[in-house]
Amino acid sequence: MEIFGSTKNRKEFYVRMKLSRNKYGKTEHSFCIKYFKWVLWFSLSFYFFATPLGNRRPATKSFDSEISKLQSKSLKVYIYELPSKYNSDWLSIERCSNHLFASEVAIHKALSKSQVRTFDPSVADFFFVPVYVSCKFSAGNGFPEIGHARGLLSSAVDLISSEFPFWNRRNGSDHVFVASHDYGACFHAMEDRAVAEGIPEFMKNSIVLQTFGVRYRHPCQDVENIVIPPYASPEKVQSILSMSPVTGRRDIFVFFRGKMEVHPKNVSGQYYSRRLRTEILRKYSHDRRFYLRRNRFAGYLSEIVRSVFCLCPLGWAPWSPRLVESVALGCIPVIIADGIMLPFEKVVPWSEISLTVAEKDLGKLDRILDYVAATNLSSIQRNLWDPKVKQAPLFHDDMEFGDATWQILIALSEKLGSYKSRFFVES
Which superkingdom, per the lineage (predicted)? Predict the structure, then answer.
C-alpha cells in the first residue's frame, strides 16, 4: 500500500466544435449548435450533482477501509498470552511504557486491540511473542539493562514451543519479536560485544522488529527484520504542539541536546559516537547559530519545536530517538550516521524531509545548513509538516491510520505472499 506519494497528473480533455460560416465570414448558428453548449452543460451538471453520494469514492481513505485492505490480504496475527513475568509485570515501572525503547510495549498494546488480531492460532499468518526486555533499569545511571534479554526470550520460546505446535511447525519463521535497542537482535549496547555474542540461535529464523538497521552487511541484522522507529510519546508530542504549532516561530537555527564528551572516553576500544559529538561540540559550541547543550532537560521537546534543524548524530548505534522527535515536531532532521537504514523507507520520503551529512563532512556542516536555508528550506519544511509524514514514526496504544504499528502491519503483509508460497512448497 502506498501511503506517501506525489499527486498524479490528471489528463484533461475538451470538445472542439467546428462551426459553419456564411459567405460573409460570420458564424451561422443552427438551433442545435446554438443550444448544444447549454444541453451539454445541463447534462454534465445533472450527472455530477444527481449521482447518489453513496456511489462516490470518498476523497480521503478512512481507517476502516484501510483495515479492510489488510484483512483482504488475509493478514491475521496471533498474540501469545504469556505469563505476566514476561510483560505486564514490568509495567509497574512507569518508565517501561514511555522510554525510548518502549516500542516493544506500544506494539503489543496496539496489536492486542487491532482488527488483524486473531484468537484462533490455526488461521494465523504471524505469531507475536510479547516479551519486554528493555524495562529493567540500572540503579546507577537509569539506562535500561538488557543483559537478561537472551534468558528471558529463551524461556518464552521454550514455553510456547512446548505448549503450542506452531513454533515447531515452521521452526519459528512466522514468529515476530521486538528488539528495540541499540544493536537489535544482538541484545547488547556495545557493538563489539553485540557482534561477538550475535543473534540468539533460536531467533535466527524469525522476524525481528528492530530499531537497528544499516545498508551494509552486519551480523546484527543477519535475520529477517523490519526497521522500526524508536519510541517517542505521542501524548508529549501533542502537548507540545498544542502550545507551539508546527508552523510557529522557530528562533533556534541548529539544535542538539545530549551526550557530548569534551574528551571522548575509550570504552572497550570504542569511542562514543565515533568522536562525532565531541567534534560538533569543539567546532560549533561558539557559533551562536548552534544551540548545543550537554545537560539533560525534561522539557527539551519544547526546544525542538522552536528549531529549524535538529542534529541526529549516531550514539553507540547509528539510530537516535531525536529522529522521531524531530519529525513529529517539524524540525528538519540532520542525520549524521554513515550507512544508516531509516524506518519505513518504502513509504516515508526521507530524502524530501531530512538532510544526510556524511561523517567526513562534519567540518562543513555550518556551510551545508546555510546553503539549504538559502535555497530549499521552505520546500523541505512543507514536506516535513505533512500530517501523514508526522504520523508515520509514532506509536499509539490504539493503532491509528498511518502510524508506526500500521506501517509494521503493511510491511508484514508484504512478506505474506512469499511466506505462503514458501510454506506451501515446504509442506
Answer: Eukaryota
